[in-house]
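Quick check before the chapter quiz. The format below is the same one you will see on the exam, so make sure you can read both the input and the output lines.
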Amino acid sequence: MAIAANDLRRGQAIDYNGEICVVLDVQHRTPGNLRAFVQATLRSIRTGKSADVRFSSTEKVETVPLTTRKMEFSYRDGDDYVFTDPETFETVTLSPELVGEARNYLVENGPVTVTFVEDRAVSVELPPSVVLTVTDAPEGIRGDSANNVQKPVVLETGITVQVPLFIKTGEKIRIDTRTGKYLERA
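Here is the expected output.
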């Protein structure tokens, strides 16, 4: 299906120069007295390389259908990440580059949405928040509670976040996966 470059959206898959690419970013620009254009960042599914591409705003672009599947993170296999479909028990192994920042929030059996183009995984999307266990939390200093004072704690995935002083080692907390900030106790 062909669409105008103006209608390109982040996350779509397109056929660009005979290669299937995922749109990572799109910006519409209208410089001074020149014609409007669309600046898009595309990642090739075959090579994994990203490139900035400029389309005229009326240029036609061929889209490729995407499919999404609810999956669960199973385990790490060396550097790679293995996900399982909870209904069919089919597994998919993804590279660290494809998983990206999502790796900071992946826990065993944690739900994710994996997007496929032509049976090839292209992205991993986390739920808006996840529950993680605090593995290392320093003691809060007594009387140190003037104004929303926070302390750094280490979570089970190895990331460090700022939390209120009352959080202790072993507690489960909810983290916003979009900002990486503490939300509440779980």
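If your answer matched, good. Residues 129-185 form a domain with the OB fold (Dihydrolipoamide Acetyltransferase, E2P) fold (CATH 2.40.50.140).
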